[in-house]
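thread: overnight batch results

M.L. [08:02]
morning all. the overnight job finished for the chain we discussed friday. pasting input first so we're all looking at the same thing
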Amino acid sequence: MSAETPTPETPTSTTSEAGRGSGSSLAVGGPTPSGPTAPDSVAPEPPLRRNAAYLLLTTGRFAQAIGAGVGTFAIPLLAFEVTGSVGQAGLISGIGQAGALLATLPAGVVADRVDRRRLLVVAAATGTALWATVVAAGLAGTLGAWHLAAVLFGSSMVSAFVNPASGGALRAVVPPAQMANAMAVNQGRMAAVALFAGPVGGFLYGMAHVLPFVASVLGHLIEVVAVSFVRKPLNGRRTQQIHPLADLRDGLAFVGAVPLFRAVLVLITLLNLTSIALVVAINLELVRIGTDPRLIGLVDACAGVSMLAGAIVAGPIVRRTRVGRLGLLAIGTLAVALVVMALAPSYWVFVSMLAVGVFLYPALNAGFTGYLTVIIPDRMMGRATSLLGLTGLIAAPAAPVLGSALLEGWGIGVTLWVMVCAMAAVLVALACTRPLMRIGRPSAWAADALE
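M.L. [08:03]
and the structure it wrote out:
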C-alpha cells in the first residue's frame, strides 16, 4: 500500500497569492474564512496554563529532560572512572548515538501504530529501570564498562521511541493556533536544561558519583506519573494497520512526496553539521592555545544564556514573523557573526559572536517545529517526525570529525571561513526554497494541513 499524495486542505475562502499557481503541495497564508465558521464566532480555546493535559505532558518531559541532561553530563566521567581509559570512555559514550540511530525509523512506525500514552509510559518506565540498575551497581561497587554501555544503548533507544510519540501527543492536546506558543515554551525549557544540566551534574557528581543517575531515575519516574494522569486521548482516528515494513514504506513515500520535507532533510542536516562542527572547532582551538578550562566553559555558558533569552521572546517573534523570513534572519545573523570571528579569531570575539549568532535559533526552532506539528497528519506523525529527526542524528557523529579535521589540517582561520561559506550556502538555498519561504504566521498554519 502506498502513501497518499499529500495535498493541502482547501480553505473555505480563496487561496492566498502565495499558493496560487506554485505547483507546491503547500498553500500558505490563506485568508481567514468568513461566515458562520469564522474563528471569531467560535469560543476561544483556554490558555495553555489552563490546559491540564498539556501541563502534565510538558511537566513530564521537562523532568525527564533535566534528569537525562544531568546524567548525560556525568556519563563520560563515570565511564573514565570505570575503564581508566579515555578511548574506552569515548567509545561507551558513542554507543548511545548508535542506539538512537538504529531505533529511529522503527520507533516512528511503532509511534503511529500504538496508543501514545501507553508508549510514553512504558518508555519512561523502561528508562527508570535502566538507570536504577546503574545506581544500584554503583552503590554496590559492581558497575562495569559493559553494564554502563548496555544502559546507554537502551536509554538512547528509549529516547528514540519517546520523541515521535511526544510530538503526536502534543498535537493531540494543543490547538493549532496555540502551537507556536507551546513550542516557544518548549524551547525555553530545553535551553534551561542545556544551561543548568552541566553545573548541576558536576555538583552532584562531586558529592557522590551515583547522584546524577539518581536524578535520571527521578526524572523518568516523574514522567511516568505525569503522563499516566493525562485523560485526554493522545491519538487521532486510527486507520487500518498493515505490515510494519509497509508502514515504513508509506512514511518514506509520504516524506519524499512533499517538497518542503525533502528540502528540510538537506538544509537542516547541513545547518546542524556546520553549527556543531563550529562549536567543536572553537573549543578545540581554545584547548590548543592553552585557555583556562573555566573560560572554555564560559563560551558554551554564554551561548546557553543567549538561547535562553531568545527562547523567552520566541513566542512573540514567531507570532509576528513568517517562518521563512525568520529562518533568513536567524541564519543570516549567525553567518555575520561567523564573518566577524573569521576576521578576528580571539577568545572574547568567540564568546560575544556565538551569543549573538544563536539568539534567534529558539524562535526559528519553535516556528518550524510548530508548523510541522500542525501540518503533518496524525496517522503519519511518528514516521515523519522520526525521518526528519535523522538530520540531527546524521550530523551528531560527523560534525566533531569535520570540525577537528579542518582545525588540525588548516588552522582556525581557514576553518572559520569554511563555516562562513557553508552557512552562506544554507542561506542561499533557504531563500530559493519556495515551500519554506511561503510558510505563513501561526494563524495560517492550520490551512496548510496535509491530507
